[in-house]
UniProtKB/TrEMBL annotation:
It comes from Clohesyomyces aquaticus. InterPro entries: AAA+_ATPase (IPR003593), GIY-YIG_endonuc (IPR000305), P-loop_NTPase (IPR027417), SLFN_3-like_DNA/RNA_helicase (IPR018647). This is GIY-YIG domain-containing protein. PROSITE patterns: GIY_YIG (PS50164). Residues 28-112 form the GIY-YIG domain.
Amino acid sequence: MTSFQIARVDFTKDAVVVWKSQHENHGNWPVVYVLDNGRNSNANNSLRDIYVGESLNAAHRLRQHLETPTKKHLKNVRVIFHEKFNKSVCLDLESYLIKMLAGDGANQVLNRNNGITEARYYQRDAYREGFRTIFEHLRADGVFTRTIPEIENSDLFKLSPFKALTEDQANSVEEIVNRLLAEIERDEGSAIVIQGDPGTGKTVVAIYLIKLLIDIKTFDSLEDMDSDSRFSNFFTQANQRLLHDFKIGLVVPQQSLRETIKAVFKKTRGLDPRMIMNPFVAGEAEGNFDLLIVDETHRLNQRANQPSGVLNAKFTKITRELFGRDDTSKTQLDWILAKSRHQIFLLDAMQSVRPADLPAEVLSDLVADTRATGRHFQLRTQMRVQAGSDFVSYVRWILDPRPLSVPRVRLQFGDYDFRSFGNVAEMRDLVFQRNAEVGLSRMVAGYAWAWKSKKDKTAFDIEIGETQLRWNSVPTDWVSSNNALEEVGSIHTVQGYDLNYVGVIIGLDLRFDLERKRLFIDRKSYFDTKGKEGNKTLGKTCSDDDLLKFITQIYGVLMTRGIRGTYVYACDPGLRQYIADFIPSGSSTPVNSALNPNGNAMIY
């Protein structure tokens, strides 16, 4: 697609009238256009306002925008033409440019979130290749400030509310909003659960839902609304009245992910970073919320020893204020239910990683209750791992703590780069190589080494043979930090994030007994104190079986971060031999294998 044209027009009534008279296609041809207010010189607000649209009658649509109060301040128009454009192509290009502009970091995108979805059409792949050429021309003209790889590797892009939804995501969003609006009208409360494996886009759905609800609440005109968009029917004055003064909060238990989402909200029109909070802030908030959305619900806490005395005191204080007494059976889930009229819980019980996390039976009851009322939604489409949805279940199957009693078969994942290594230095070198090629490639590990470098910046934390490594030097947004490539991230810095390639070091906290044919843990090699301590308040201990469950789930999370590839090195020789039967070798260092010539496990 090389014969496209980009016309520059001043965003004034006179200029648009003149431009329309220059060619009949300016009023009768499918196009995509970009409106902006130029580079913003205000030091306190350096973001440029920008809007992307598509139309069969560009001149008419531009005149409509000139009468819209929220767009009158815009100055420039770029109209993109191509002789082979059609409605489907223009909708797709519009979606692509919105996503890329939101991820660029220099813009505040003015578009509403009314239904960007992944639609198929004739020769879509060929057209999409041409989109990249259009991007480069717009970048040369100053519309974009970053390259395509830089944008696609950014958190702003990955967590943008303008992401195109998969079909199961879009179906869930549509049904949830329908139910929510109906329940608000009937003055009824509700609880909804959205479940999904790693990479199915639970966080994306949460952010998308908030943006959609805020846009319905605040829209001021329907003139520039595409009636064909998936969620355009929600934009009515009746729904706007229902959402008047509707107070929404997003609860994110993990500190790193919470700060990253705040950065996205800061650059998204209608969203406010103050909407994002930890469970303590939600519990202490003045007044109640109409809707609380909880991401990573499985990381909410039950009553347990907190990381600090201050938080222990807060747990008691919040529980007493909400329930009239210090009831130790109450969890942060109970806080959320008490502080909101409506709740949406996003969860994956297989990603619980500490004894203080909500007990499995509490999560099971929550899922069962919402299933019984038809308020349970399952996300199945794998958005992260290019190996597909079977990869997550395969990784969890490899890490299943139960003793092996039947032969297992190695699965193949096509072009997905899945390898095990007998030498950690070789794996690290390959991670460096992949980062040079496509960026966003990182090393991660289980918490099997003390964090010496936290106090002594010259110390090394992880020493395996001659390889010396340090833990992450920053607690928030580590994957995008300057030194991340040289460091190793833990579960607390990468849960919820995407990487292009991930190199996973399995420490001596997890081992494999070749005679008993089962995984086991070495408690003294696990250095997350909060990850293995008992719960004196509730009279619970963290048994070896409990810890084995948490540690295998941690490695399950770490091994499902990679979009393009996953590399694994195990410190324990028995575990190295075990995983070599199920993960192809990528190392020049020999690893014993128990596979027969057909690739089936003989011993296990």
